[in-house]
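Give me the fold.
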Amino acid sequence: MTSRSPRLGYLLVVAAAVLFGVNAGVSRIPLRSGTPTDTFTSVRITAALAVLVLVAVAVDRAALRPPRGRSLLLVVGLGLVGVTGVQWTYNVAINRLPLGIALLLEYLGPVLVVLWVRFVRSEPVAPRMWPALGLAVLGLAVVSRIWSGLEFDGLGVAMALLAAVCFATYFLLGERGVDADSPLQVIVWSFAAATVVMNLVQPVWTADALGADASALGRFDEVVVPAWAAMGWVVVLGTVAPFFLLLVALRMLSATIVSVVAMLEPVVAALVGWGWFRETLTPLQILGMAMVLSGVVLAQTSRRSEPAPLPPPT
């Protein structure tokens, strides 16, 4: 991992979190037009792969060469766990648990990243990272209003916790992968692995509902758009762009920092729900957002300074 341009790294993670948060709203359009969740996931991943291949052909054809050895194992693991796994487990969780609880459990992923780095890799973690995590998780609990729908479902809780594991795995494997290969090569081949798996589960040609018109929902309920156009947004701006931005950021910042800053996503999603879908946003939730932001700022300041280089030998 390189420490160059940490400020750019922060900007990339924030941009990815904003795109993911907005995508939570846009995704409702094709999903509510009649497209099943498995079909939606297959189309999203397969179309994203097609876009990434076109980008690689235009920008860097070397990214189309498959990685070898350890790098190949990393990108396959990233595709199966960090791409397919996190989406599938989260979709199951939100179908069996209140959305706030599912979201909170998934965003335990950054906690797992820090624990892995500290106790498995035995790498030092700045002391202030711990209160930063606690503040961000507590803020998410407030934003999600978990007290409004506490229901226990064993399978739902298990899937939400697996989503957290997959979420953490994306950052940890992504950090290792971009050390050896370019971010474009890593994301192309991780999405290739994910595409194979999802099309075995649910082939993309079952997406008949995407040819119909759909409501833009919420405040734009009377606006009719093609479902495929909303799906195009999901693929390009809700998948390709944010996943790639996170991988590029992992070349500039550690997985611990990137995963905590990414916790801005549910804050953005809550704002989208309020502005687009007329969902309630209480003063207490605004306080929760401020807590998440404070945790993110605290995490940013926990980055250890690189030691000054030794003078050249005389």
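Residues 76 and 297 are 33 Å apart (CA to CA).
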